[in-house]
Design goal:
By secondary structure, the protein is mainly beta. It has two domains: about 280 residues, Outer membrane phospholipase (ompla), Chain C, CATH 2.40.230.10; about 60 residues, no CATH class. It is built from two helices and 15 strands. The strands form two sheets. The chain has a twelve-stranded antiparallel β-barrel. A two-stranded antiparallel sheet has the order 1-2. A hairpin with a 2-residue loop joins strand 7 and strand 8. The longest helix has about 30 residues.
Length: about 375
């Protein structure tokens, strides 16, 4: 591995702070565009059956508007109404929906309406907004960091290093919910949730041999909480690094020099959406047990930008930046930037394709003290 001076880490961390400041302006621009495109709708609180209107660009598809049939307080349930009260006559091609006689004055509405972020609503009301217990819930309250190198997911990144080597880093794993007390919204749920995560992060040479050089393994249990624009995470995880068997066979004696890098850590993280398309986050981790050169403290912070909600087949652009600082490097570390195209499903799962840039200390902990500069292309899938 090519060793680079520690000043590289200082410069890259400064670059991270400059990028995060610039992204604030970019996030505001996305917010204006999202509001103009009408990606979300606001419920009409004065009616029982509420008007739902999506435009052609809505990620939730095209649905014909359903006019409100009854105003609150205008119908006592005993006398059928032939036409809506205090509203204009329905056009001939519209169908008015009348509430049954045994219906209460409130009807669940599966529309995005709370909280109201400057008129742009994001969280579902109605039955999806009621808190309840759920086993194996859909979606996550606290999502993995897109540009985080050691997040549990399915991914493959092909890149070249300045020393001329070509490598690929693969991750096989994921994070899933076990138990939730909160809303049933899969895209942006609120409440408490217990998750489990696990992943194997491997590095292989990308040449005529394609040896497995090293592998990092991570398993953890996050407890998360989401309310309005905020999400919080308290997690415990174990991470250990191992030398690849093919590398050991090709390099006799390497097992005697392998690094037994281990972290058993407690993590506290916070995530905030100043706009539905813009996420900011940071976390601090402290390892109660370390080995192989690891030191207790580590910190992460970053930002993500992408249009919210299911994207359909067309997808949407994304940008992600993550900085990871570790005590064993005098709180230097690495910075990762990714940009490309994203697709989001109905349950919040995300697939991304795009460019990848990494600069700093190695993303494989078997060589944690080496410096790397990675430039390549990746595919990432987060549950």
């Amino acid at each position: 591995m090519l060793r680079r001076p520690r000043s590289i880490v200082t410069r890259t961390c400064a670059l991270a702070l400059w990028l995060c400041a610039g992204l604030a302006t970019f996030g505001i621009a996305i917010g204006s565009a999202s509001a103009q495109e009408g990606w979300s709708t606001e419920a009409n609180p004065s009616s029982v059956y509420q008007l739902v209107s999506w435009n052609d660009d809505s990620p939730y598809g095209n649905a014909a508007p359903v006019p409100a049939a009854v105003e609150l307080g205008a119908w006592d349930g005993s006398t059928p109404l032939s036409q809506p009260t205090s509203m204009a006559q329905a056009p001939p091609n519209e169908t008015w929906i009348a509430a049954p006689a045994d219906r209460s004055s409130y009807v669940d509405a599966e529309v995005y309406g709370d909280p109201d972020w400057e008129g742009r609503s994001f969280v579902q009301r109605g039955s999806a907004g009621m808190w309840c217990w759920q086993i194996l819930p859909d979606g996550l309250i606290y999502h993995s960091y897109w540009a985080g190198a050691h997040e549990p997911r399915i991914s493959l990144v092909l890149f070249g290093e300045r020393d001329g080597r070509s490598l690929w880093d693969g991750t096989l794993g994921g994070r899933v919910g076990l138990l939730r007390y909160g809303t049933t919204n899969a895209i942006f749920p609120q409440g408490w949730q217990l998750d489990v995560e696990a992943a194997a992060m491997v590095r292989l040479t990308l040449d005529e041999i394609r040896d497995l050089e090293s592998a990092d393994y991570r398993v953890g249990i996050p407890l998360t909480y989401g309310i309005d624009q905020w999400q919080f995470k308290f997690a415990m995880y174990h991470l250990s690094s191992h030398l690849g068997d093919e590398f050991a066979i090709a390099n006799p004696g390497s097992l005697d020099e392998r690094i037994n890098y281990v972290r058993d850590a407690l993590v506290l993280g916070a995530s905030y959406y100043p706009h539905p398309a813009w996420r900011l986050y940071s976390e601090a981790g402290y390892s109660v047990n370390v080995d192989g050169g690891a030191e207790p403290w580590e910190f992460q912070f970053g930002t993500e930008l992408a249009r919210p909600g299911p994207t359909g087949p067309h997808g949407t652009p994304f940008l992600a930046v993550n900085a990871h600082l570790r005590e064993e490097h005098n709180f230097g570390g690495d910075i990762t930037t990714q940009a490309g195209w994203l697709w989001r499903g109905e349950s919040g799962q995300v697939m991304r394709l795009g460019a990848h840039y990494f600069n700093g200390k190695s993303s494989q902990y078997q060589t944690f003290d080496d410096s790397e500069e990675q430039i390549g292309f990746g595919m990432w899938y987060d549950l």
